[in-house]
Amino acid sequence: MKKTSTSVLPAGGALGDEPLLAVDDLHVEFVTRQGVVKAVNGVSYSLNPGETLAVLGESGSGKSVTAQAIMGILDMPPARIPRGEVRFRGTDLLRLPEDARSQVRGQRVAMIFQDALSALNPVFTVGSQIGEMFRVHRGASRRDAEKKAVELMDRVRIPGARQRVHDYPHQFSGGMRQRIMIAMSIALDPEVLIADEPTTALDVTVQAQIMELLAELQRESNMGLILITHDLGVVADVADKIAVMYGGRIVENALVHDIYRAPAHPYTKGLLDSIPRVDQKGQELYAIKGMPPNLLAMPSGCAFHPRCPYRQDNCVTEAPPLYEIGPTRSSACHYWREVLDGSHG
Fold it and tell me: Are 193 and 105 in contact (CB under 8 A)?
């Protein structure tokens, strides 16, 4: 893959046992008039080349804020990162000067944003916006940049790319706009791609097509993919492992098949139980009771305890650590054994 390397980051293969991307004990806070919002509280996860990590959680769980911290696009202030590391190929991105960080952003670590219509500029053609990546980062001429834009539109399967390269965002459907966003994100052959709710507001058929496209692009380039979503149904066929977030922290980490077979945290179990199933036709859908926590006033002990059917007295007073319950999984629940066994709740 063609890359523009920086003086501070090594190119090429993985560095020994170091993963491609490692988030370690990341904390992100927002200073507001009401107080300090602790949006991310000690998040850790890793990603290897060719691997897909799904980061799952409700709105406000901290999954998108974590991604923005990785990309270096948080507004600081009001945001601040009091603790943690984001290592790309062994180098902590949080400690890089902004000029070095900007060479990583987009070129080696890229992001697809949730709302394609808002992310695209309505007054420039899609070809101009895709081509800008090559003009800014590669010094390409307008003609060469447009040629590259057509190639990328073909690669993400936009019909009639040569004719449509001069169209504007509003002239495309929601699914096609998302393909344009994907084309922009892969333009410079990134090694890590973060997709933030890439199928939100798309119908089910188009969702499947977008997920299939991302999987195909990943196979071609062996890039690491972080898929941020609130929908467990979207990740079953594409993810290798899942990190479930709640209240700004990871509450369960596991290989995808382990989570679907036997969740080890009550919140994950609730998410799985709320997925509509064909064999439950006519029955009332399960819903997790209550509301996500207020990040300005987090509950004592385990943040999930007000909504948890497995709650015991110590859950109210003692925040559970992330228990290692196997070689590839962990759970932040005092009663993870009972959840795994399904013995009560």
Answer: no
* pLDDT score at 306: 92
Sheet holding 224-229, edge to edge: 109-112, 192-196, 224-229, 52-56, 241-246, 249-255, 329-331, 323-326
Which residues of the chain carry a pLDDT beneath 70? 1-16, 278-282, 343-345
C-beta separation of 140 from 148 below 8 A? yes
Q: Using DSSP, state whether 55 is helix, strand or coil.
A: strand
Q: How far apart are CA 15 and CA 138, in angstroms?
A: 26
- Mean pLDDT taken over the chain: 87
Task: Check whether the bond before 293 is cis (ω within 30° of 0).
Answer: no
Query: What residues are paired with 192 via a beta bridge?
Result: 109, 224
For 4-55, how does the pLDDT look when each residue is reduced to its tens digit (9 = 90+)? 444 455 555 445 678 999 999 999 999 988 888 999 999 999 999 999 999 9
If one counts every other C-beta atom within 10 angstroms of the C-beta of residue 231, the result is: 15
Which CATH code, of 3.40.309.10, 3.40.50.300, 3.90.1310.10, 3.40.470.10, is assigned to 21-108+188-341? Answer: 3.40.50.300
Q: Beta strands 241-246 and 52-56: pairing type?
A: parallel
- Domain edges within the chain: 21-108+188-341, 120-187
